Amino acid sequence: MAELCDLVRQAVWTVMLVAAPMLVVGVLVAAVVGLIQAATGIHDPVLALIPRLAAMAAVLVITLPWMAERLVDLFVHAAVPPS
Fold it and tell me: Structure pTM?
C-alpha cells in the first residue's frame, strides 16, 4: 500500500512539473495581453486567445523532449518492481 501511495504521489508531482511551463507561460501571456487590452480599450476575446495559444504551443514544442523524458522516467519507475 505504501508503494502505491508513493507511486501516486510521484505521478502527481511529475504531472505538475510537466504541465508547469505551459501553464506559467499561458498565465504570463494572458496578463500581458490583458494589460494591453485594458490600456487600448480593445476587448476582443479572440485577441486574448490567439497569443496565449501561440505561446503555449511554442513552449510545448520547445519543452516536449524534456516532458517526454520525465514521463518515460515515471513509467519506467512504475513498471520496475522495487527490489
Answer: 0.80
